[in-house]
Amino acid sequence: xxxxxxxxxxxxxxxxxxxxxxxxxxxxxxxxxxxxxxxxxxxxxxxxxxxxxxxxxxxxxxxxxxxxxxxxxxxxxxxxxxxxxxxxxxxxxxxxxxxxxxxxxxxxxxxxxxxxxxxxxxxxxxxxxxxxxxxxxxxxxxxxxxxxxxxxxxxxxxxxxxxxxxxxxxxxxxxxxxxxxxxxxxxxxxxxxxxxxxxxxxxxxxxxxxxxxxxxxxxxxxxxxxxxxxxx
Length: 232
Prior knowledge:
By secondary structure, the protein is α/β, with parallel strands linked by helices. The chain has a single domain (8-224), classed as 3-Layer(aba) Sandwich (Undecaprenyl pyrophosphate synthetase). It has 7 helices and 6 strands. It is globular.
């Protein structure tokens, strides 16, 4: 892949946080706390790497509501704490925050905080950080279709790919180029079904708290060595 290629949209499924904690005899949310440290390191690394323009992180899926309510509550508090801590840094470093997923089921304080930071950083252009929280690929498509039914022009008789994509959560973001999933899970798990249709996938055996920036650098290098054909 040419070094002159357009900056890529990198997405990470940071899996294995609970397994990491269990192996160390810790509560599940301790794994999430350690994961937040890795997320900050990885985000900082991506912002400095000119090959990457957008970083998407899947922090909570629509299926994760099935987990222990105590763990969910701790994770939501952790997300709110970390976002508040990074709020000024986003503005200082020109980071635009975007959210994918539902806000209506999140704790109100967290949902409000996300909305406020999205508005504050809307004009930032240096880097885009998209957080998928209460996100599922099928759920997004259903919501997009429902929005289209109430918002499409009355003279629109048929849909095209472009028409439907306009109703996705963040329609202006480019499609995902590379997805990295940690913890040895080799499946897509309902992750951005539309936007990752032609993405390259790399699966790491490491649990996410053990996934370092050098692992990320190796994955991006591997991606650059691949030939993306898009059906040709």
